Amino acid sequence: MLKTCRLWCLGPGGSPAALRLLRKNRGGGGGFRGARRVSTSWSPVGAAFNVKAQPARKELLGERQGLFGVPELSSPEGFHVAQEKALRQAESLVESACATPLGPQTVCIFDQLSDALCKVADLADFVKIAHPDPAYREAAEEACRNIGTMVEKLNTNVELYQSLQKLLSDEKLVASLDPETRKVAELFMFDFEISGIHLDEEKRKRAVDLNVKILDLSSAFIMQTHFPNKIDKHLLPERILYNFAHDGNHALVTNLHAESSDDLVREVAYKVFLYPNTDQLNCLDELLSNRDHLAKLVGYPTFAHRALQGTIAKSPEIVTQFLEKLSEKLSERTVKDFEMMKGMKMKLNPQNSTLMPWDHPYYSGAIRAERYNIEPSLYCPFFSLGACMEGLNLLFRQLLGISLYVEQPEKGEVWCEDVRKLAVVHETEGLLGYIYCDFFQRADKPHQDCHFTIRGGRLKENGEYQLPIVVLMLNLPHSTSIAPPLLTPGMLENLFHEMGHAMHSMLGRTRYQHVTGTRCPTDFAEVPSILMEYFASDYRVVNQFAKHYQTGQALPKNMVSRLCESKKVCAAADMQLQVFYATLDQIYHGKHPLKRSTTEILKETQEKFYGLPYVPNTAWQLRFSHLVGYGAKYYSYLMSRAVASMVWKECFMQDPFSRAMGERYRREMLAHGGGKEPMLMVQGMLQKCLSIEDFVGALVSDLDMDFETYFMDS
């Protein structure tokens, strides 16, 4: 998952640098008491992730540095210093933007302004949720609010807007701009206009008020999606009470308990957790209505039209066609999948064999488990974290000429001793950027796997390149006294996925940080990460690193075969469920006022686009947190997977280590960030124009492929 703070104005290769490499673990292989023997020889990267971090001598004795090497952030109070510095710099740049003669320099100043605010806002956005020290989290939260206030001022600065408007209305000047500069100027103008700055004073004030209200409603909605629902304990059979937390005479239901083997537990959890909440229903109605009002105020027929500007899909009409055609192609397969699930339910619970929505996750999993022996514990010994990191290192080196080196962080540079710092180095271009790996479980750490942009890359005024910095946050197990951190197949896939985002950030060598790396349309941003999942499932790739941490034995090919084949079991029904979610999202953000209540729309859409019956007195949409962050763009996961599938099959399936294809991938897709139209990047990679049928066909064909075709022999 992607996490990039994209406020307004926020939203060639690096030079070689001396690397302080962590060499103390070079060649190390042991270190775990109780292991029979360890025949695996880990590289420095592998050792750094397989062995528990030890404080370096300089960390114990040296002066304390700031978070991410930012001097001001050696204490929580430093956030105030950093934000004040950024705000002063922003005020100076606003003056420059309004006074400088119109031309490419105008866009450069706007980007400097974006960069000054992003350097604090992006960093604070991460720290406020991930730092273990409450004082740092509170200081970061305050910095986010103060930068947000500055952004609101910029959104209403007519003089600033007019300087950009004059540039873009001068045809001769626009023609003199290079494509990337023109694209960035247009993006800044779009950011301005969706805030209503081009309107008269009264309408502009309404737009500002709507934006504020939408932010408040979004926060309230997100918060409520996680709240438990309660039910009187006396209403539940005593035998299932232990599955739920208790609050006095009530049982608390905090989630859907989708993996429970007890049908009744899943049914109760579904009906209680999804029981309608009047306040949350009103909050969603208000959120959707205000989004619609704002979109119409700034010149769009619906919020979806506004949200899809500049995406691969371009319009809600195309998204709807895509989803409808995909649903049509999936229809027969989905029916067969549901029949299989129904058969499994009848086998395990013949007294109640009607298939219901709470059954889908459990019984599809039961079918996979019965057909394929894919117990995660069988795979974990082959997927030590160090081995997986070395696998990524080998893959990137062969595909892109890139190596990962472990650096010892300075005292105070990281927020937890478990965080590892990686330097990303190209064989000829030198240092490209840094990845901070916050991989291990800890108390109060968010459970979602995420990629955060901390600092975007850009060409600085002195001609040097500002190196990008990102954080990858996962929730992996720690090493033990007898074993290194061992990953399940799902954890391995997530690691590769998030590293795909990181490589996008490292290789997006744009002139402007406003479009650096993953700062691009949502339906394109997920392509590099999903593509990495295909590499993680290819035996030729996995075979390079998946070795038993004790014996050194390679992961047998048939185990990879079973794992990959299992993913296709009930995959049509899983994809159909995503079509339902994406369609619901489009309807909610389409024409307003809505013809029916959000719950009635849910019922109707579920019956048309899913296939399992709506359960009376439930309101699943009130738990659909993606309506906030992915409003009108939930389809992006499906479209990104379609693009990734096409790129894999046409460019990498024959040879996953092809340097020629790796270079084309970097040149056509990764290098531009959001500075080029996404469809042009996709077409440049695939070297052909694409239709909706191509996207649909790519997704459906993934359900068909047999093992020997999909995973070609080494």
Compact summary:
It is built from 29 helices and 11 strands. The chain is an alpha+beta fold and about 725 residues long. The protein has a domain at about 70-210: Glutathione S-transferase Yfyf (Class Pi), Chain A, domain 2 (Up-down Bundle), CATH 1.20.1050.
What does the model show?
GO terms for molecular function: metal ion binding; metalloendopeptidase activity. Pfam families: Peptidase_M3. It is found in: Mitochondrion matrix. One of its GO terms (cellular component) is mitochondrial matrix. Its EC number is 3.4.24.59. The structure is a single chain. It is globular and about 80 Å long. It starts with a strand and ends with a helix. A six-stranded mixed sheet has the order 1-8-11-7-6-5. It has a three-stranded antiparallel sheet with strand order 2-4-3. It is α+β, with helices and mostly antiparallel strands and 714 residues long. It has helices at 44-50, 57-61, 78-99, 104-130, 134-155, 158-169, 171-176, 179-193, 201-225, 263-273, 278-297, 303-307, 316-348, 360-371, 376-379, 385-400, 489-507, 522-525, 527-536, 539-542, 557-566, 571-588, 598-609, 626-629, 636-652, 659-670, 678-686, 692-704, 707-710; strands spanning 2-3, 229-232, 245-247, 250-253, 402-407, 420-426, 430-440, 450-455, 458-459, 465-466, 469-476. Residues 4-40 and 707-714 have low confidence and may be disordered. The protein is built from 29 helices and eleven strands. It has a domain at 71-208: Glutathione S-transferase Yfyf (Class Pi), Chain A, domain 2 (Up-down Bundle). A hairpin with a 2-residue loop joins β3 and β4 (250-253). α1 (44-50) packs antiparallel against α16, α3 packs across α6 (158-169) and α26 packs antiparallel against α27.
